[in-house]
Amino acid sequence: MRLLYVIIGCVAILWGCSQRNREAQREVQDPHQHIDREKLIEANRKYLKAETNAIERYVTERQWDYRVHKNGVYYRILTRSGNNEKAKEGDVVYFTCEMELLNGKRIYEDEPALRTLRIDREDAEIGLHEMLKLFSPGDSVQMVLPSFLAFGLAGDLDEVGMRQPVVYSIKIEKIAKQ
């Protein structure tokens, strides 16, 4: 008989614990439930406007004769080769590249480094893929990729911080057609 009371007591305790756990789970709410979507959208718009203003200040202070691509990249052509060969998806572009932040801090290399990029098939900055399609071997260009086309929200977790535009100085060396 005593054993029966012990078993009934254990079952009652377990049942009570499971009820409290269910109540606690009901109290825990979705953390995203309180985020106001419109406020986030507005905050991102404000940040994008501030970033665009910073890029415009950068190119204006340096007196760039610049163009703005439809994707938001500010660029200027330093030299045109007269060659009409352009890279397409799958082609490999060989180019020298210097990179810096808007504050003038050089990143990755002190001297121009030869890079290769298989267009639209390799992991690299989205804006770089898009812009390299516009130029031919022998062309030199400077461009400012907005953060969303460079290293994004998080940066590269190394030399490029969160939401930082990146300035590229590029010379297209050759294009290997595929």
TrEMBL record:
Record has Isomerase as a keyword: yes
Among the GO molecular function terms of this UniProt record, one is: peptidyl-prolyl cis-trans isomerase activity
Instruction: List residues of the PPIase FKBP-type domain.
Output: 84-172
User: What EC number(s) does this enzyme carry?
Assistant: 5.2.1.8
Superkingdom assignment: Bacteria
Pfam families recorded for this chain? FKBP_C
Q: What are the protein's UniProt keywords?
A: Isomerase, Rotamase
Which reactions fall under this protein's catalytic activity? [protein]-peptidylproline (omega=180) = [protein]-peptidylproline (omega=0)
Q: What is the official name of this protein in its record?
A: peptidylprolyl isomerase
